[in-house]
Design goal:
Elements (H helix, E strand, L loop, with lengths): L2 H5 L9 E6 L2 H4 L8 H11 L3 E4 L1 H6 L1 H4 L3 E5 L1 E2 L12 E2 L3 H6 L4 E6 L6 H18 L3 E5 L13 H13 L4 E4 L6 H5 L5 E4 L7 H13 L4 E4 L1 H4 L4 H12 L5 H5 L5
Parallel strand pairs: 1-2, 1-10, 2-3, 3-6, 6-7, 7-8, 8-9, 9-10
Antiparallel strand pairs: 4-5
Helix pairs in contact: 3-12, 10-12
């Protein structure tokens, strides 16, 4: 009970979603674009974000700004920017705290791979059981090789494995990287998948084309941070994303919103 109702605050009636990720301050500090979370939240919510993925601190301090927008709380912590080579994320927040904050879903990072899967997949299973008790949807952010793991680990075969593992161990949605051939990933996973935005890019056409390809190959939305709030016009980027995700327009038509 409760999961379906909460998911309706994240997924629109078309079962698709545009999620703005704003959890970066918890590891990278006041990055350009999120120095003032209140202003950024106002911009992206006005621009058409379906849900905000953020930290307990942002959720607690900007509750009124978030309003009725879908809220996803991050439960775990990988490492700050001062640390390298640490990918086995630690759980910092309990599901109960997310319930008190009015969350519509929680998210944690996990993934198969040497040195990371024993801890992260155990976290996934334990939190999934806790989410069942509270009726809280769980989003698994799945990285083959671990959070910020080796780029060569992000292959279609490894993404297929990671997505299916998330479904089998109790997640309700998957957030993961995109690679060409993504239909093989969605075909083997029976829960919704949203693709993440990745590192900040200046090649907007390739960025939006990759999203369009993921969507036409079964992805049900996006969860993007820096490529939205790190852009000079976040609301225009959101118009493009909403056109791709919800209106199912082609890339050229959607990108016209950048200049309107």
């Amino acid at each position: 009970m409760g999961k379906y109702k909460r998911l309706q605050h994240i997924l629109r009636p078309d079962d698709r979603t545009v999620i703005v990720a704003m959890d970066h301050g918890g590891t990278s500090g006041p990055m350009p674009g999120i120095v003032n979370p209140e202003i950024t939240l106002q911009q992206v919510i006005a621009g058409g974000a379906d849900a905000i993925l953020t930290t307990v601190g942002v959720a607690k301090n900007f509750e009124r700004v978030l309003g009725s927008t879908g809220l996803i709380i991050r439960l775990d912590f990988p490492a700050t920017d001062l640390v390298t080579g640490v990918y086995d994320c630690e759980l910092f927040i309990e599901v109960e705290e997310a319930v008190r904050l009015g969350a519509d879903a929680v998210i944690l990072s996990a993934g198969p791979g040497q040195g990371v899967e024993r801890k992260t997949l155990k976290n996934l299973s334990r939190v999934a059981q806790e989410c069942e008790r509270y009726g809280m949807p769980l989003i698994a952010e799945m990285y083959p090789g671990g959070f910020n793991g080796p780029a060569e680990m992000i292959t279609i075969d490894n993404l297929k494995l990671a997505a299916r593992i998330a479904a089998e161990w109790g997640a309700d949605m998957v957030k993961m990287p995109y690679r060409p051939g993504f239909d093989a990933v969605t075909a083997g996973c029976y829960i919704p998948i949203v693709v993440l935005g990745g590192a900040k890019t200046n090649n907007e056409e390739i960025f939006f084309t990759n999203i369009w390809d993921a969507l036409r190959n079964g992805a049900q939305g996006v969860a993007i941070g820096r490529n939205i709030w790190g852009h000079p016009q976040p609301a225009r980027v959101l118009k493009v994303l909403n056109a791709l995700v919800h209106e199912k327009t082609d890339v050229a038509t959607a990108m016209a919103h950048l200049v309107k």
